[in-house]
Task: inverse folding
């Protein structure tokens, strides 16, 4: 036993006969326990203020308190002390309730004998010890999680800041490179041979691509830095707006976009427009020879909406589907299809910010379906 110096037990009992019986039982079992008896809750709480007890034996029916409230008061006063509740034969349920509310054990008065009492005291002490140890390791674990989360948030913030500053500051020197290359081309192209002119052309082309990537990176970091403005958003309007922004691509490719009535959700309207726009523009870009057909639908599950954007495009090999949401990851070269590989990273960021998930199902030549979810708490 831990505290060998103090083996005092506090007994709350207003029936002197019962108290005497328990005292005898303790003596009978040759234990070293001493009993201190209090007859009221008030007296007990007072004694607990300045004394340590190895166990509390608690009759819930006292002159100044009755039922489970007696336990709650005593437990609040001595949260680290094991409590054994003493009940009558006819109200055993209160014993079970007491254990749920923080007591370590309960004994039915009429059934107590010295052996049972001794065993119950030991058991209560051990159980309380384990509980306290568990509590401490739980607290330590929570503290660790809090520390890690804080560190992660900090490094995320720094990374976002870095992406923003880098992309912002890179634009200026790049503008210089592009304009001097153009000057070189305009002034000296007739004095240079074909190879030199080709080299300038490649350099201009590369600078343009870099400019596109920086712009997209800026857009990405804007989405990650932006405070979300939650409002009622009618997704039918969102889709109209996305289609308007993609008007040229839709008309040039004769793309057909269909959708059933979409719900109104609680979200950030501009981010939703960007989300649909990024996925639909891919459905048009990665088209096959036939007319691009894109269908958008929403289905309600118990706690969320699932949106599906289905196309009849070139599709992707299913083994690459995890990669496409990573920034700068592309399955096609720039010569096959224009792009920087940021569109789906932005889409994923938006969905995650709304607490949902995004994924794709596809196979080469079989078209693709992009799914994303919006949890119920974002839905009005
Ligand atoms: P980008 O289109 O600029 O390359 P995205 O992040 O939008 O960048 O897409 C990443 C990659 O995923 C694309 O390069 C393409 O290979 C593939 N992809 C995306 N959408 C589709 C689609 N609807 N059909 C086929 N491939 C797609």
Result:
């Amino acid at each position: 036993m831990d505290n060998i110096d103090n083996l005092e037990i506090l007994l709350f009992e207003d029936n002197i006969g019962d108290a005497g019986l328990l005292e005898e039982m303790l003596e009978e079992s040759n234990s070293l326990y001493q009993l201190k008896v209090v007859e009221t809750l008030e007296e007990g709480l007072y004694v607990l203020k300045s004394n340590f007890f190895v166990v509390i034996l608690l009759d819930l029916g006292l002159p100044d308190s009755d039922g489970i409230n007696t336990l709650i008061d005593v437990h609040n006063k001595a949260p680290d002390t094991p409590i054994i509740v003493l009940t009558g034969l006819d109200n055993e349920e209160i014993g079970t309730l007491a254990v749920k509310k923080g007591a370590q054990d309960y004994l039915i008065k009429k059934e107590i004998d010295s052996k049972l009492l001794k065993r119950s005291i030991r058991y209560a002490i051990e159980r309380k010890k384990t509980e306290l140890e568990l509590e401490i390791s739980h607290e330590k674990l929570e503290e660790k999680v809090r520390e890690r989360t804080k560190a992660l948030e900090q490094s995320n913030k720094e990374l976002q800041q870095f992406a923003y500053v880098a992309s912002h500051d890179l634009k200026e020197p790049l503008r210089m490179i592009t304009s001097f290359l153009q000057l070189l081309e305009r002034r000296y192209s007739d004095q240079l041979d074909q190879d030199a002119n080709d080299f300038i052309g490649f350099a201009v082309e590369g600078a343009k691509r870099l400019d596109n990537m920086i712009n997209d990176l800026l857009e990405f970091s804007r989405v990650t830095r932006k405070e979300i403005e939650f409002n009622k958003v009618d997704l039918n309007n969102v889709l109209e707006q996305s289609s308007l922004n993609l008007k040229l691509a839709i008309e040039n490719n004769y793309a057909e976009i269909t959708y059933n009535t979409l719900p109104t959700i609680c979200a950030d309207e501009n981010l939703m427009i960007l989300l649909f726009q990024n996925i639909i523009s891919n459905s048009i870009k990665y088209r096959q020879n036939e007319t691009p057909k894109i269908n958008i639908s929403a289905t309600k599950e118990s706690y969320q909406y699932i949106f599906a954007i289905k196309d009849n495009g070139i599709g992707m090999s299913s083994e690459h589907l995890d990669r496409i949401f990573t920034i700068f990851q592309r399955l096609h070269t720039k010569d096959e299809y224009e792009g920087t590989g940021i569109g789906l990273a932005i889409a994923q960021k938006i969905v995650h910010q709304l607490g949902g998930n995004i994924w794709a199902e596809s196979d080469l030549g079989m078209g693709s379906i992009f799914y994303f979810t919006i949890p119920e708490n974002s839905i009005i």
Q: What stands out?
A: The CA atoms of residues 29 and 324 lie 73 Å apart.
